[in-house]
Amino acid sequence: MNVLFEQIGRVVVAKLNRPSALNALNTETMYELISKLEKFDKSPSVGCIIITGSENIFCAGADIKEMASKNFSQMFEEDYFGYWEVFSKIKTPIIAAVSGYALGGGCELAMMCDTILASENAVFGQPEIKLGVIPGIGGTQRLTSLVGKSKAMDIILSGRNIEAKEAENIGLASKIISQNNFLNNVIKYAQNIANYSKTALIASKEAINQSLECSLKDGIVFERRVFHSLFNTQDQKEGMDAFLEKRIANFNSIYQPIKK
Ligand code: CAA
Questions:
Q1: Which fold has domain 3-194?
Q2: Euclidean distance between CA atoms 174 and 95, whole angstroms
Q3: Residue having the nearest C-alpha atom to atom 20 of ligand 1
Q4: What is the DSSP string of 189-258?
Q5: 198-244 belongs to CATH 3.40.50.300
Q6: What would the pLDDT profile of 107-126 be if each residue is shown by its tens digit?
Q7: What is the pTM of this model?
Q8: pLDDT for 255 beyond 90
Q9: Of the residues 22, 43, 160, 175, which has the fewest C-beta atoms closer than 10 A?
């Protein structure tokens, strides 16, 4: 198995598991990861997903051994990397827990997630320029929207490595977490998120992502309409009742019909 899955409470941990290739993403790994995530996405018992690797390697990128001998027609006809678009349709929040190298497709996988938590030893980079190519799983687009044009040019044109501190400073990683007990601390962070209303989590993710696709004016209307729609959920009643009754809210699944 190229990816190991474990559900801990409402959190699913997906661990890349190709140590001999430094967790490089071949086609098999891509299908294995995405098809399983699609199933967890539909489960009301899953509120948050973590993608991680080992302590020293998150992922060394797309599998160079798989790609090296391909020609244009093969890449084009297979729409190589095209299936990654399914990953970005997953509605459940996804956290990238990056320890060690996240290079090329590894950095792109982390950026496809909703937020990146970096261990102190995390190293990011888009080294494709050194291979005579460019990023192919969204790196030129997502890195630019995360860190701005000038910094994205610097990183992609130089192919240089970015240490955790710099990744945090430029907004690539949302925060650095101590290397000691890293994954357990990310799981705790994810459990907190996973216990909120899944409907509200999905709505938050959708509204934030919408901001990248439309004008501020349209985005604000979109947000307000989604906000209105949440008043037809049991979780909104529970969340606000719990506040007024000074107790902790007990949110339910998205599939529970609204109580009268
Ligand atoms: N694909 C396939 N195999 C890879 C790989 C990759 N991306 N990265 C490492 N490996 C393999 C190596 O070939 C080696 O295998 P063998 O034992 O069979 O020789 C094994 O993993 C160990 O690698 P190293 O000996 O190089 O390990 P290291 O500790 O000395 O260096 C590293 C670690 C700095 C991460 C180095 O392996 C490296 O630079 N890897 C390539 C990084 C890279 O260029 N990534 C971009 C790939 S292209 C891409 O991702 C395109 C895109 O947009 C999607």
A1: 2-enoyl-CoA Hydratase; Chain A, domain 1 (3.90.226)
A2: 10
A3: 21
A4: HHHHHHTS-HHHHHHHHHHHHHTTTS-HHHHHHHHHHHHHHGGGSHHHHHHHHHHHTTS------TTSPP
A5: no
A6: 999 999 999 999 999 999 99
A7: 0.96
A8: no
A9: 175
